[in-house]
Design goal:
By secondary structure, the protein is mainly alpha-helical. The chain has one domain: dinb family like domain (Four Helix Bundle (Hemerythrin (Met), subunit A), Up-down Bundle), CATH 1.20.120. Helices cover about 55% and strands about 0% of the residues. The relative contact order is 0.19.
């Protein structure tokens, strides 16, 4: 198995797990917080849409599907109250569309591209990600981190999360 086939399969697996966790939430459970006064599940879900949407920009392969999410849910943005977020149904649908877009991005990658600078490189000396391969690793770890948060929220609500 070549590198791009492996990372594409890994993305599919992580996305499948993420969507499986997300499907377990009722609309009301998206109000639950990771800890008191911290991110609620819907904000985390909106943040996942934002971060996964901009992955394609770093690969130089597509445009944002949901630029309006980036303005509200990017890293460092202030937590919005549940009522000011898009509906859970809309956010689930948005994430599914972003995942489908990214599956196309992954399927178009070639092994030779992985060590190339990512498409948004401005400052090679100070850019943490530097290459497309490092962006891929960071974005997939980011998905796993936030999916773990969502699974923890469900578990604290008394729901069985794993099988």
């Amino acid at each position: 198995m070549n590198a791009t086939t492996f990372i594409s399969a890994q993305y599919d697996m992580v996305s499948e797990w993420m969507m499986g966790v997300i499907r377990e939430f009722s609309d009301e459970e998206f109000r639950l917080e990771i800890s008191p006064g911290k991110n609620h599940a819907l904000w985390i879900l909106c943040h996942l849409v934002t971060s996964d949407d901009d992955f394609s920009l770093y690969m130089g392969k597509s445009e944002l599907l949901y630029p309006e999410y980036a303005e509200l849910f990017s890293q460092g943005r202030k937590l919005l109250p549940f009522e000011q977020c898009p509906s859970p149904k809309d956010v689930r649908n948005a994430l599914e569309k972003v995942i489908e877009k990214n599956k196309l991005v992954y399927s178009s990658l070639r092994d030779e591209e992985l060590n190339e600078p990512h498409a948004l490189m401005n400052d090679p000396e100070n850019d943490f990600f530097k290459t497309k391969a490092r962006v891929i690793m960071a974005w997939q770890l980011h998905q796993v981190y936030h999916t773990g948060q969502l699974a923890s929220i469900l578990s604290a609500a008394g729901k069985k999360v794993y099988g």
